[in-house]
Amino acid sequence: MRGLMLGLATLVVITAAPAWAAEWKTVRDAEAHVTIDMPGAYKTEPQTNKTELGAIPGVNYSVTTGSAYYVLSASNFGNELGSTPAAEILEPFVDGAIEGMSATKTSTRKITVSGAEGRDVTYTLQVEGVAVSGRMRVLYRNGWVYAAQALTFGQDDNTTGDRFLGSLRLLD
Predict the structure, then answer these.
(1) pTM, whole model, 2 decimals?
(2) Among 71, 63, 62, 72, which Cα is nearest to 21's?
(3) In 3-state terms, what secondary structure has residue 90?
(4) What angle do CA 4, 163, 38 make, to 5 degrees?
(5) Which segments within the chain are labelled E, that is strand?
(6) Distance between CA atoms of 63 and 116, rounded to whole angstroms?
């Protein structure tokens, strides 16, 4: 399971074409059962994640502002994870994401969003000599793994990241 989550987590990358945030846009993905507000025009990229369970379909929504990067990744494992408890999926995913980014985890707390168990994680890393602070919310429900991340380059009050992450909701 750890290898699976590490592989999937490393697909959440820290690169995107610059896009200056003008106004908030709402992502509403009925297939993935998720909605989130993005701080500007976002880019949508279908993903096929190669894991030990085979090819897992998913989608990434991302936007880059002047000093920050925001991404929501949703991956559909369908019945592949069976009745695995959420904690056994979330913990390896978070650890794999942190390891895949060569980041240092600074805090983790359990959360519940739209009735789904999740983790809220803060971390730091260096990208080309620049200090990056990040916060990630990872949720699991009905075969879907969701990872929303807000990364800030240099100094930032992270108000935008708080709004982005706070808007994450799962749909019925």
Answers:
(1) 0.85
(2) 63
(3) helix
(4) 70
(5) 25-29, 34-38, 43-51, 54-64, 68-76, 104-113, 116-127, 130-141, 144-153, 169-170
(6) 25
Domains of the chain: 2-170 (3.40.1000.10)
Would the CA dihedral through 45, 138, 126, 57 be positive or negative? Answer: negative
Selection from 172, 169, 145 nearest residue 37 by Cα: 169
Cβ(147)–Cβ(137) below 8 Å:
yes
Q: Provide the pairing of β-strand 104-113 with 68-76.
A: unpaired
Token readout for 39 is 């701080």
List residues bridging with 6 in a β-sheet. none
Q: Which residues in the chain show pLDDT less than 50?
A: 2, 4-21
At 89, give phi and psi (nearest 5°).
Answer: -100, -45
